[in-house]
Amino acid sequence: MSSDVLTFGDWDVTFTDGAAVSSISSHILHTDLLLKNLSSQVTNQMLQAEIAQFGSEASVMRDSRRKRARIRFLDAEPAKQALAVLDSKRLGPSRIEVTLDRTKDLQWIEDGILLSYDTCETTASVSFLTAEEATEALGLNRSMFQGRRLRVTQESETRLLVEELPAIFDEDDLLTFFGAQTIEITRDFGEDSDIHALLQALIREQPGCASLHVVPLPAELGRGAGWIRMYNEERVKEVATEVRGLRPIFLGGNVVQAHRAQCFVWKVSPEHIHAVYSLLDELEIEGAYLKYDAKATEEQEVRLVASDLRKLRAAHCKIDVIINGMIWTNGGPIWDRHWVSEEGRAFIQEVNQVSTAYVRANMFERIVRIAGREEAKDCAIAMLQSYLDKLDKERHLIKLPKELMQEFITHGLPRLGNSLYHFDSTIGKRQDVEFKGSDDARQQLYLVLDQCATEVSLRSRGGDRPTCGICTTMVTDPLELECGHYNASSKIATTHQVCVFYAELRRRHNTDVCWRSPFGLICAGALNISLAQPLTALNCGTSTPTKIPHAGSPNVPRALSVYAWRAR
């Protein structure tokens, strides 16, 4: 059995045999849940009683006016369990809607139900040579034709009216079915907005479906589709049973189909969608529905929905490339810290307006992504490069605290000594760092300053020398600890976070592992992914190294890049 891992933002989606999803894992640990449609009859004590079943304490922030509440768990695992259990559960007189806190997410995956139906009312006028043939054919009333039960009435002695036909069928098949001479087909297409409103009202009238919200999806002429987000598996089965097979009169008696499906969601700004909507319009996808608003003036969610996971995966690969765009590279990712400064953000905004591309600087991954048409991306790259060339010629001044400056002079400056002349940088030994050089020189300096800041924060724990935040071992070598931990990150994990991630690593690999890199024995979490080298895993107790993926690949949790634990 083969498996394929697809990276989607902060998610890893594993497809088995290219079809079924075997696992979906998130790099972000969500601990906040948002509850909607919460009745005023539900008290905080009732909520706490529901939370208690997940074995974790949680704080409840209630907004009775908006019928909402936010639950904050201490850990991500009980939050994940609560999402699956509480979503669409009846509390008091109504069912509540539970979602993860998506305020900082740009991409995520939803589970739910895909509705599909024919929107046109199809009728046929069938003519016969004699009245006897017409009378005999009248006996086919309520007969099945291509999965539909027909309604047949008499218009005249030799003509019959056939209603509730499928939206699409071969005319010759119907002619043969009735043994008629001629046939005239009429198709009446209703207004999509009216049909959606009527369908949503009808679904909410079904038992247990009063709180459901149906998102309309664009479909081909004569077809309609809708998406209902729902995480609770039991509720999915219940709702699908209630909705599947409905024959609304406003759909001409067409049957509503309900299938379990999944949805990829991208959160995009107006500038972003304006840069890529023409590419999305030209895209041809099969068996999936893509919903977006090209004229939006506010932040929106682009949705890709399908019940066939093969087609969902194929469509996702095409759309994700368009929306996320390309990484700006020149042999390697091009990055400069100025992109996230106030001046840099203003310049990127100007680039987006002039080039009609969409440029986004990601501080965490230290990359710049550019989305849009090829000519727009070329224009954006030219503007960005001119900005970097301007920075290369300028002198830059960084003000540092006294303690950090001392650490930099003692430990950081020696690391830069061999490369200063190469980078054409000048650094003064005051509380200001002044330098001039290429973007490579600037990034090397910023990295060393980050490492020095980490050492200063460790020293504040006590003692004359920095100590490891995990095992309190003293630093014996600049920027490297005797215990093997490497402080390449600007933050050190708390003991609680360390235990959580180490347990997750053991669960995934079913073994204790150490990690090695060109810097010596280090922890995987401390290695910044933008500077990470290919790693080698060494099973404890053995000396046989085994190649493992690059630290930036989807198989290594991206969240580990900012945490450290003791290598065993």
Can you walk through the features of this model?
By secondary structure, the protein is an alpha+beta fold. The protein folds into six domains: about 30-105, 2-Layer Sandwich (Alpha-Beta Plaits); about 120-190, Alpha-Beta Plaits, CATH 3.30.70; about 190-325, no CATH class; about 325-395, 2-Layer Sandwich (Ribosomal Protein S8, Chain: A, domain 1), CATH 3.30.1370; about 395-460; about 475-560, no CATH class. About 30% of the residues lie in helices and about 30% in strands. The chain has 14 helices and 32 strands. Strands 17-18-10-19-21-20 form a six-stranded antiparallel beta sheet. It has a four-stranded antiparallel beta sheet with strand order 5-6-4-9, with helices on one face. The radius of gyration is 31 Å and the shape is elongated. The chain starts with a strand and ends in a 21-residue tail after the last strand. Mean pLDDT is about 70; it is low at about 15-25 and about 475-568.
Descriptive key words:
568 residues, alpha+beta, Alpha-Beta Plaits, 6 domains, 6-stranded antiparallel beta sheet, 14 helices, disordered C terminus, RNA-binding, RRM domain-containing protein, RBD_domain_sf, RNA binding, Nucleotide-bd_a/b_plait_sf
Note the gap between the termini. 33 Å
Number of folding domains?
Answer: 6
Number of strands: 32
Any low-confidence stretches, pLDDT <50, length ≥5? 15-24, 476-568
What do the pLDDT scores average to? 72
Keywords: RNA-binding
Protein name: RRM domain-containing protein
GO molecular function, one term: RNA binding
Domain RRM: 31-103
